[in-house]
Write a structure and sequence with these properties.
3 helices, alpha+beta
């Protein structure tokens, strides 16, 4: 099933631990940011991953990622991460996620040349598969969750 959900937004701040020695976000950390945003997206439906695992035996694993890096984020930047369900199947979901640097309002220019508009930093395509926590074999996404997601797409 193809889907095109409304974007889910989640904001985070870039901390020192996210950067390299030059104060630029290390490229692999965008995958961590995307993971956190998907977790918060799931919470927005009233589901927590630990509870799903305990009650249904379902866990989600990343099957595939592809990220285009467009512009660097720096220490102290505020980022807006988006989550959009592009495709949903019985046991998998494909997401399009973006990381945006928000204007700082302090004239630092980190968000963009005029520091008044968000700047796209990275765009990723992430495929997540629902698996049984005991066997790690694919299994259907729990019905209650699947129905909630389908209502928003």
């Amino acid at each position: 099933m193809s889907a095109a959900s409304s974007p889910f937004d989640w904001k985070i701040r870039v901390y020192y631990e996210d950067t390299d020695t030059g104060g630029v976000v290390f490229y692999a950390n965008y995958l961590k940011f995307f993971e956190r945003a998907r977790t918060e997206w799931l919470r927005s439906f009233g589901f927590q991953q630990q509870h799903l695992a305990e009650t249904t035996g379902a866990i989600f694993v990343v099957k595939n990622t592809s990220v285009d890096y467009l512009s660097p984020a720096r220490l102290d930047d505020e980022l807006r991460l988006t989550v959009v369900v592009e495709k949903i199947r019985n046991a998998s979901m494909q997401f399009i996620q973006e990381a945006w640097c928000l204007p700082s309002g302090d004239g630092s220019g980190s968000a963009g040349p005029d520091d008044s508009a968000p700047r796209l930093l990275a765009r990723g395509s992430i495929t997540v598969v629902c698996v049984d926590q005991a066997t790690f074999r694919p299994r259907p996404i729990p019905d209650e969750l699947l129905n909630r997601i389908k209502k928003t797409t």
